[in-house]
Amino acid sequence: MKTIITYGTFDLFHYGHVRLFKRLRAMGDKLIVAVSTDEFNALKGKAAFFSYLQRAEIVEACQYVDMVIPETHWGQKAKDICKYDISTFGIGDDWKGEFDELSVLCDVVYLGRTGEISSTEIKNSLADNGAPANETRK
Question: Which domains does the chain have, with CATH numbers?
Answer without folding.
Answer: 3-127 (3.40.50.620)
